[in-house]
Amino acid sequence: MNVIIGNKLKKLRKSKEMSQEQVADYLHLSQSAYARIERGESSSWASYANKICELFKIIPEELVTNDIRQDEETTNDLNETLIINQLSDKVVEQYEARIKELKKTIKDLKRKRKP
């Protein structure tokens, strides 16, 4: 749960273009304590839930619920990246094969040109 909240806090913070230090100052925490919350290493976020919601203008339910839509978007992004990488690999393989063919053709032409 702490990792989910931490990731959500990081996204919220970045969407507001805030630094960890700015959020930490607002919550009256050290930057390192806030960084531990974002990394999911601390559950102290619960003590600051109301102030966090106030800062990011969200309701507490939004903070603690796992957004399935975001998980689906992340999965879709990963799938698209995988497909692009696979296609790129295939294109590279095709170009390498074509280069090999052209090198052979050049070699054959050079051999035919020499008496």
Describe what this molecule looks like in 3D.
The chain has 115 residues and is mainly alpha-helical. It has 2 domains: 2-64, 434 Repressor (Amino-terminal Domain) (Orthogonal Bundle), CATH 1.10.260.40; 68-115. The chain is 77% helix and 0% strand. The protein is built from 6 helices and no strands. The protein has helices at residues 2-15, 20-27, 31-38, 49-56, 60-64, 68-113. α2 crosses α3 (31-38). The longest helix is centred in the C-terminal third of the chain and has 46 residues, at 68-113. It is rod-shaped, with a radius of gyration of 26 Å. The mean pLDDT is 87.
Distance between the termini: 78 Å
β-strand number: 0
Q: How many strands, what sense, and barrel or not for the largest sheet?
A: none
- Helix fraction, binned, reads over 70%
State the domain count. 2
Under CATH at level 1, the class of the largest domain stands as Mainly Alpha
Mean pLDDT: 87
Question: How would you summarize the topology of this molecule?
Answer:
Blueprint: H1 2-15, H2 20-27, H3 31-38, H4 49-56, H5 60-64, H6 68-113
Helix pairs in contact: 2-3
List its traits.
single chain, 115 residues, mainly alpha, 434 Repressor (Amino-terminal Domain), 2 domains, 6 helices, 77% helix
Q: Brief overview, please?
A:
The chain is an all-alpha fold. The protein is 77% helix and 0% strand.
